[in-house]
Design brief:
heterodimer; A: mainly beta; 5-stranded antiparallel sheet; 0% helix; globular; B: mainly beta; 24-stranded parallel sheet
Chain lengths: 124, 266
């Protein structure tokens, strides 16, 4: 399992989520689903809410990309992440992409910031 | 006052769950020493007229205190002699808000494997040794010291001084003086807010300049990375030591006066 943490993701901004990585650099929330040159078959995503203020359900979606600069597209079964979702995952049959991204699909009206902990797991 | 311990497994901070059957009271000295539960109720202790003395959360506790849906632990800790909250939990997370009386937590010391979130009030002296610290825009930090770990401080009231000695941090508000020592790494991303003095005080210290208002003086004995700045920045006086390194962004970084500094051994 490989773990990634993105902090202070601003849910008021549409598009691929932006957060701070471990080095304090502001980056897009995109993680590879591979170990070496082998693509992994199962990805789980955990989400930790940073702000006490409420944020709208379904503001984020987990999407797939086959290139780092490709447009993220939904999985076969769209995976949305709402304020009550502490843990979101994918069925193993869905994870056929090289990258997964978190995309803010509905802007939050407040100033909600979230920390995203993403674990990429090989269950094969 | 005698130390009171929270009963292991308690999910409420109510009086009955403390070893002295009182818990939060003016000048109380409290300890959460063990457990892995999520503490969800009686988190609002802002009704105290003077505030507690100390609350220590020790490595044996790996649970969560507050959070989304529960809110923060609201407390004032500036009463009696010690005036502190120590968050040294072995994991988990905790939300704190300085609230009640004069809404001050005099000292907040953190060296934890967990994450702390500061969600309001004034934290006068914050010392971060280890762990993840998130500070929201309503929280006032007066003189924070980051010795390690990873802090993300949102835009808000400017600090008098910020000291970075280690770890990797994001600073989104102004400051009168910023000192970066050792192998500290700081990303300054404070939009148009001014900084008076930025001192990069060792050859391995690194400051990433993302955005800022005018910086009056930079004294650089380390590494200043300004090649990815997101808005035009003026440094009124830029002084460089013998090994000072600057990754410039000529179109967006203006240095009005450039000077040399002698060697520094810190």
């Amino acid at each position: 399992m490989t773990s990634y943490q993105f902090r202070a993701v601003d849910l008021s901004l549409l598009g691929v989520a932006m957060g701070y990585n471990e080095r304090g650099e502001r980056v897009r929330v995109i993680v590879p689903c591979a170990s070496g040159n082998r693509q992994l078959a199962n990805v789980s995503v955990s989400v930790e809410v940073h702000a006490n203020s409420a944020w709208s359900a379904g503001v984020m979606s987990l999407r797939q990309m086959n290139h780092i600069n490709a447009e993220p597209v939904d999985f076969g079964t769209p995976v949305t992440i709402g304020s009550s979702d502490k843990l979101k995952g994918l069925a193993s049959t869905e994870a056929d992409a090289a990258f997964v991204a978190i995309v803010t699909t509905t802007a939050n009206s407040g100033a909600a910031l979230v920390d995203l902990n993403i674990n990429v797991t090989d269950n094969v | 006052m005698a130390i009171a311990y929270l009963n292991e497994g308690a999910i409420s901070l109510a009086a009955a769950n403390w070893s002295d059957a009182t818990g939060f009271a003016n000048a109380a000295t409290l300890v959460i020493s063990s457990g892995s539960q999520t503490i969800t109720t009686s988190l609002d202790q802002s009704g105290l007229t003077a505030g507690i003395d100390t609350l220590d959360i020790l490595p044996g506790f790996t649970g969560r205190i507050g959070g989304s849906g529960y809110g923060s632990l609201k407390v004032d800790a500036d009463e009696s002699t010690t005036n502190r909250i120590i968050y040294n939990a072995g994991g988990g997370s905790a939300y704190f808000q300085a609230s009640g009386d004069n809404s001050i937590i005099s000292n907040f010391w953190m060296s934890s494997l967990g994450s702390a979130y500061l969600t309001g009030g004034t934290f006068s002296n914050v010392v971060l040794g280890q762990g993840s610290l998130s500070v929201d825009s309503t929280t006032v930090l007066t003189d924070p010291i980051f010795d390690g770990g990873a802090a993300v401080v949102q835009a808000g009231t400017a600090a008098t001084s910020l000291t970075v000695r280690g770890g990797s941090h994001v600073w989104k508000r102004g400051a009168t003086t910023i000192n970066v020592y050792g192998r500290g790494r700081l990303n300054i991303d404070c939009a148009g807010t001014a900084i008076t003095t930025l001192n990069i005080l060792s050859s391995e210290a690194e400051v990433v300049l993302s955005s800022s208002g005018t910086i009056t003086t930079v004294n650089n004995w380390g590494r200043l990375l300004a090649d990815k700045i997101t808005r035009a920045i003026t440094i009124s006086t830029y002084n460089s030591g013998p090994a000072g390194f600057l990754a410039d962004s000529p179109s967006y970084l203006t240095r009005s006066a450039i000077g040399r500094l002698g060697a520094k051994n810190i």
